[in-house]
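Recap from last week: sequence in, structure out.
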Amino acid sequence: MITLLAHNKRQIARQILNVQIPSYQKEAELLQTDRIPRLYDSINDILSCNEIFLGYFQKEELAGFISFKKWEGNLVDIHRLVVAQAHFRKGIAKSLLSSLLNRFPNSTFTVSTGEDNTPARNLYENTGFIQTRSTQVEPNLWINHYKRTPKRELPKTPTSGHPNNG
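Predicted structure tokens:
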């Protein structure tokens, strides 16, 4: 079940960190760096951040979460998409991302991830995100930036010239 997380409550912030830190340690291994800022978040960082968190629960356990900021002009900036290691490869990240995309169907989404984080890159690329640029943040560490614009349905056109056909 996916639900809004009250990350400003200490118990929830602790649950978020208990999922986040090991997951970012795994990403640090993939990227071959320990310079991932979220790897060093504290409970106070979670309590005071102005992101919105959605959590995926399996029974009573927080199995993953996504956090984002919603800006004016229908822009949603994804900040974290994290799954507990015990729940890797169960579709939780895809469910969280899909839930967020469905909540704001007319929005543009942005997200960034390490170039060597193949699972994250594949997830974003397979859900309609397009890489917009790549930034080198230190030697041998590149961050890919992605954007997904709303899908616009084309107006249906009649099969003949008569407006009542179609």
